[in-house]
Design a protein that fits this description.
Helices cover about 40% and strands about 20% of the residues. The chain has helices at about 1-35, 95, 125-140, 155-165, 180-190, 195, 205, 230-235, 260-270; strands spanning about 55-60, 65-70, 80-85, 105-110, 150-155, 170-175, 215-220, 240-245.
């Protein structure tokens, strides 16, 4: 009787371990499907109130990216390069872009590979290529690094930080940044060995040390996707000069209210 019970427990343990290993294998295979959300849509029909030119940016691996380019005055004003977060199309950022019309800036927002109808599939090195190709496109029309402000939103902070390392851009804006994708994944999957499984790590907490240009970090304490402590940690690690806009009530989609816009305007003005 005791032997049967022991065998049953052993078989149960082996069965549970087998299921756990199978889950890990499936997570490893399909992790990028879980990580990136190009088809998620939170667009509420906001009408774009700034004039834009639709442009095509070709990456080093010949993927064409859709971009929206607003040119106010390329010689007089800085140009914001906006790297969006992990969901939806360019239209999902319309409500933010509309606020740029009252700022003395040009802007270029691009959509990642696999997003907004672009070919390809998103992965870490591929998105770095997308970002670097965007900077090269601007340089090809006559801009230099000092003319460019890098703006990263959520996932886009990973690309923004990667590209800004050891460079001389005018400034860097990080909205709801994460420390690393490994730590972000642990927040959602605490019982999974993400250190071993994760392909795309986006190690912002290491790379931010290599940035020596003015940086503005914005984050809300109510963020349920990227914990507030991550944005605060990135701020603590960042080199001077650095500025923060931390709020009590903003969640992951920070509200572009009068106070936030005023902070952006002040930061941008300080870079001229």
């Amino acid at each position: 009787m005791k032997l049967k019970r022991r065998n049953f427990i052993l078989e149960l343990v082996i069965g549970i371990l087998g299921i756990y290993v199978l889950v890990l294998l499936l997570l490893f295979i399909f992790q990028r499907n879980l990580m990136y959300h190009p088809d998620e849509n939170n667009y509420f029909g906001d009408k774009l109130e700034v004039d834009i030119e639709k442009v095509k940016i070709t990456t080093s691996d010949n993927i064409n990216l859709l971009g929206w380019f607003h040119k106010k005055d390329l010689k007089k004003f800085k140009t914001i390069v906006y790297f969006h977060g992990n969901a939806g199309k360019l239209e999902n950022r319309t409500h933010k872009l509309n606020y740029f019309k009252d700022m003395n800036v040009n802007f270029l927002i691009i959509s990642w590979r696999g997003f907004s109808g672009n070919d390809g599939k998103p992965f870490e090195e591929g998105l770095y290529d997308d970002g670097n190709s965007t900077i090269e496109w601007l340089k090809n029309i006559g801009l230099v690094e000092q003319d460019i402000i890098i703006y990263g939103e959520s996932l886009g902070t990973g690309i923004a930080i990667e590209i800004a390392q050891n460079k001389n851009f005018a400034g860097l804006i990080l909205e709801t940044p994460f420390t690393s994708m490994t730590e972000a994944a642990k927040n959602f999957y605490p019982y999974i060995p993400v250190n071993l499984l994760l392909k795309d790590k986006y190690q912002n907490n290491q790379k931010i040390k290599n940035i020596n240009i003015p940086v503005l970090i914005m984050h809300g304490e109510a963020d349920q996707i990227v914990p507030f402590w991550m944005g605060k940690k990135i701020y603590e690690i960042a080199n001077q000069p650095k500025y923060s806009y931390f709020t009590k009530h903003d969640d992951h989609m920070m509200e572009y209210n009068e106070k936030l816009v005023s902070v952006l305007k002040t930061f941008i003005k300080s870079l001229n």
